[in-house]
Amino acid sequence: MSSPRDAGASTSPPTKHPRRGIRLKRDFSAVKAAAQGRWPWLLRELGVDPDMLKRDHGPCPGCGGTDRFRFDNLQEHGTWYCSTGGGEPAHGDGFELLCHVHGWSHAEALQRVAELLNLDATDSRPAPPPPATAGSRRDAPQAEKHARAARRAADDWARAKPASADHPYLQRKGVNPFVARVDTSGRLLLPVYGAEGAMQSLERISADGMTKKALAGGRMQGGYCEVQPSAEDAPTAITEGYADACSIAMAMPTWRVVCAYSAGQIPAVAAMLRAQAPDRPLLAAVDHDEAGTRAAARALKAAAALPLRPPEPGQDWNDYHQANGLVGLRKALEQAHQENSETHTNPLNPLNPLDTGSQPSRNPLAKLSQPEEQQEEESALGALVYETEKGDKRLTIESKAAVIVANLVRGRLALDAEAGAWLLWCKTHWEPQTIPAAAEKLLADVVDRESDPLGFKVGYLNGVVAIISKRGLLPPPQWPTRVVPFANGLVDLDSTRIAQATPKRALDWALPHRFDPRATCPTIKAWLRRAVADDAKDDDPEETVELLRAWLAALVRGLSIQVFLVLIGRGGSGKGTFQRLAAALVGLRNTAISTIRDLEENRFETAKLYGKRLCMINEAGRYNGKVDMLKAITGGDYLPLERKNVQQTGSFVFGGLVLMATNEQLASSDPTSGLERRRLTVRFPRSATPEERAEWRARGGEEGVLHAEIPGLINWILELSEDEIRARIEKPPARVVEENVLGMAAGNTVADWLMDCCMPVPYSDVDFDEARHWTPIGTRRERRDSGRLVYDKVDQWLYASYLAWCDEQARKPVSVKRFGDIVIDIAETLGHRLARHQHSRLRTIGIKGLRLRLRNEDGWAEDPHDWLGARGCESTVESIEPAPQADARGSRGFSENLHQKSDAEVF
Predict the structure, then answer these.
(1) Same domain membership, residue 237 and residue 182
(2) What residues contact residue 50 under an 8 Å CB cut-off, 6+ apart?
(3) How far apart are CA 119 and CA 112, in angstroms?
(4) What would the pLDDT profile of 64-95 be if each residue is shown by its tens digit?
(5) Is the same domain home to 145 and 270?
């Protein structure tokens, strides 16, 4: 007897079956495609004992024996293996199994399957059509359209390849492919079968899952897809979507699972399945929404299908799978099944309750909760364990085990590959884990359960975890935009509607407050106005309050504004109260507390900022060191994620804001404008009196007065649009600009000297005059005069003037090499255009648009804020009374108008 493989691999010319006109070469691919995924039913209908169609070794339906046969049904093609096979090992697909069992030829097996699937092959003389009626004439074009789509569906299905678990859509959903295929463009193809079992259309899903389309002209009405077959007495779960069906099939391997493709189709599919199997339990596994509820009610009435809904409103069963894993999904399904079977009666026969169709659990994860005696009797193995043909148990290789474990923890665990850090699902958001202990424990627990009864070694676990990480099997979801995460859901900023957070739609942080659209904050508003009011100034404090409001709004919205807020004031002025209010607003778990020194000098300190929304720096004061890390944090640069005793694995961008509090102006050794451009300085000018503090405590303090109004504060700040937020921050009030300039002068010697000793000279490229608009930078020429160090040409060279000023102020100067660029940088920060320029005749480098301030110039020594655009720039040098020659000792005194000197005198 030749093997089935020989029969299936025949190369003889096309033959025609004498009875029905099957052309093997031409029609085999179409029949094979239609049979895929239906072989358990086909074999049963064609006389193969269904009790022998098991994955475990058992008797062969063709040649007997006890343990020689295995029906593995790989890729839903009905594949099998028999170790004896009538004298030699035999294997093949479903067609060859029919040949092996019944002794049919391959052509006869093909014909029998085609007849059962209603796929009559092409005949050279088609049967005449029935007489046409008026109704049939109207329906003929639609029927022809459906027929063409069905033929195209079969062709596309035959050309497609079986999907793998690494398809982007399946990975995002966390499910196995089951019967899905993939076309040449990467789209997922799902078959749509009609009541007769023939393929009538396809549903196509793009790789990103954003587009789901049926085949043009295809008939979807009454269509379904059998994702997982089962024994006749097992329940049949009917789902709205394919991902839901796959999740349920993975959690309940003994159930039959059918996808109806929409909620509206569930009643019709349920009625069809009820007609096919009147005694089989049916379950309508709908989404927890209005459409699902209506569909479940109709399915219950039409076909006695028990309703199964996820516990949380807005969820589908795939959402629940990703949030709670397969173990949680199985428990929820079993609980919902049990509860509904007790509360519903059979509408088709009210005297008899609905059959629950419960079956013994075969999920290996469920064995942990069983008694030891039952565990010993349970034959199911862990998902990472398989049996060889000889019956030996083996652990799945790490590369395959990684996919299994990733599917089991999907929805509970994700990996930020860029930062090399894990994220855990916390019901409201994905919580970043700077310490991987919790994530590693979760993975170890899953591997431990799924390797039962063999167990595992540490190297096996490390290999599985490493492959999950390197292959990116657990990517985080795409973070949604224009939403704010609250403790009770995500609030859409455009519609102000709230929706349940799910593992597929959530952020990596959440506010610890519930969204209450009716809450207000009158006390917070009043306190802010009083805290920033300055009796010494005539301006309205409301502008400063609006700036603080905009900053808080950017903090909650997660906007990248590249500024840091500095609160300055005496003790008891309220700056600490504002800090604690901001920390309570986003929550302490979303807040990192540090110092400038630690950020700059401790390389592990930036790891504190990963996943945080607020970085608070207390008592910043005079650090007098470099602030490169602070500039990187506020500038949106990548930061190293380094942990002690752990090799650096990645980097991240800090997505929050920085808030500082200090009693004096922030100072550093950085002379550039990089820090100054990002500074917003708000002074809290008044301290609370003892009477005010006593009244404050009597009313409950900060928590009882201010923090109780945080839900209202959130509503108030969210009223600002993104454009309004950016406008308030980019154009701060005059008092904030003044404080910024004072802060810049306090920490930057070049800026302080520039505003104290120089004046901008506006120019244009057309009227530029070297004699009026240009001043040489010069160099360092020092000498001793009566034991004192003095500099030459302090009244003519910019750098000499700067050195003399630094000596007078006892401050450290910058080098001449950096001086010119820093001057231009600072001036541009203050809103004035300067540029390097080489003198046309002397070839000396200077700066155009700048001159030294003259001794007798009006107000030269009183007000350092001329650079804010008010006075002095338009003055004429002729109106200034000449002063005596400077004594070159580096004081504030400068010579008379140096521009009236000749070039020889200047150089």
Answers:
(1) yes
(2) 40, 43, 44, 231, 232
(3) 10
(4) 777 778 888 887 888 988 877 655 678 889 88
(5) yes
Number of compact structural domains in the chain: 5
Helix 816-829, helix 749-757: angle, nearest 10: 70
The pTM assigned to this predicted structure is 0.57
> Residue 540 sits in which domain range?
522-742
90 to 39, 62, 67, 387, 745: CA distances (angstroms): 18, 11, 14, 20, 89
Query: Which single residue is written with the structure tokens 């009790």?
Result: 51
Question: Does any domain span residue 376?
Answer: no
Q: Are residues 87 and 49 in the same domain?
A: yes
The radius of gyration of the chain from alpha carbons, rounded to an integer in Å, stands at 39
Strands 236-239, 256-259: pairing is: parallel
Separation CA 762–CA 831 (nearest Å): 11
Domain CATH for 265: 3.40.1360.10
> What are the start-end ranges of the E strands in 445-544?
483-486, 489-492, 498-499
Residues 88 and 182 in one domain: no
Q: Each residue of 592-611: pLDDT tens digit? A: 999 888 898 888 899 999 99
Of 222, 235, 245, nearest in space to 306 by CA: 235
- Do 890 and 863 lie in one domain? The reply is yes
pLDDT tens-digit readout, 213-270: 888 888 888 899 999 988 777 899 999 999 999 999 999 988 999 999 988 889 889 9
878 shares its domain with 790: yes
Query: Could you tell me the CATH number of the domain that includes residue 829?
Result: 1.10.10.10
CA distance 884 to 184: 88
Mean pLDDT confidence for 692-716: 87
What pLDDT does residue 565 have? 94
